[in-house]
Amino acid sequence: MLPGLSNGSGLYREKKRMKIVRSLRLRLRVAPVSILVIVAVISGACEYPGVPHPLAVKQSEEVPPILSQVIAEPDTSSDEEPLSESAIQEGTVEIALKDFFLEPDQITIKAGKITFILVNEGRYTHDLRVQGQGVNEKAPRVSVGRDSQWEIHLEPGEYRIDCPISNHDERGMVGTLVVVE
């Protein structure tokens, strides 16, 4: 061993201590960066590719103040005209099942055999349920990107339509079906 570098010498201990300090400094520099990279990867993986986060609002999508007043205070005047014969559908109605609403959500149709054409335009499986007037019927589930036909016989009256899967109805997948003579 070289003079001055024995296990008991101060120089040996000092060199060993500096080596440990350098190693710790490197680890302390790398650790925060590694944590940030991991968090970014995990949070980025939680989104669907190409689908913006629902809470992300772009500057151009903000509602102008005057428009927000119109949206917040809907017109409640009773100047509604009765439905014309052309507004009442016969026999078949197409409903788009979206995340999380029905389109259309207000339907008027003639009584009798009704065929629903259900088109799932959402990212989740959806369904359609008709309730009211003693009726509580569900269509078969419709997978993502699929469509389905469902027939039901309904008497005149007002019915609630919704998606009974999970909490989809609570999130807005509800509507009204009015069946007329």
Q: Sheet with the most strands?
A: 5 strands, mixed
The rough form would be described as rod-shaped
* CATH homologous superfamily classification of the largest domain: Cupredoxins -  blue copper proteins
Distance between the termini: 108 Å
Q: Unreliable segments (pLDDT under 50, ≥5 consecutive)?
A: 45-49, 55-61, 66-72
Output the number of helix runs. Answer: 2
CATH topology of the largest domain: Immunoglobulin-like
CATH architecture grouping of the largest domain: Sandwich
Structural class: alpha+beta
Name the strands of the widest sheet in spatial order.
3-9-8-5-6
SSE blueprint and pairings:
Elements: H1 10-45, H2 65-72, E1 92-98, E2 101-103, E3 106-110, E4 112-120, E5 129-132, E6 135-138, E7 147-154, E8 157-162, E9 174-180
Parallel strand pairs: 1-4, 3-9
Antiparallel strand pairs: 1-2, 4-7, 5-6, 5-8, 8-9
How would you summarize this macromolecular structure in one to three sentences?
The chain is an alpha+beta fold. The protein has helices at 10-45, 65-72, and strands spanning 92-98, 101-103, 106-110, 112-120, 129-132, 135-138, 147-154, 157-162, 174-180.
Task: Write a concise keyword list for the protein shown above.
181 residues; alpha+beta; Immunoglobulin-like; 4-stranded mixed sheet
Structure description:
With 181 residues, the protein is an alpha+beta fold. The chain has 2 domains: 40 residues; 95 residues, Immunoglobulin-like (Sandwich), CATH 2.60.40.420. 24% of the residues lie in helices and 29% in strands. Strands 3-9-8-5-6 form a 5-stranded mixed sheet, with no helix packed on it. A 4-stranded mixed sheet has the order 2-1-4-7, with no helix packed on it. It is rod-shaped. The chain starts with 9 loop residues before the first helix and ends with a strand.
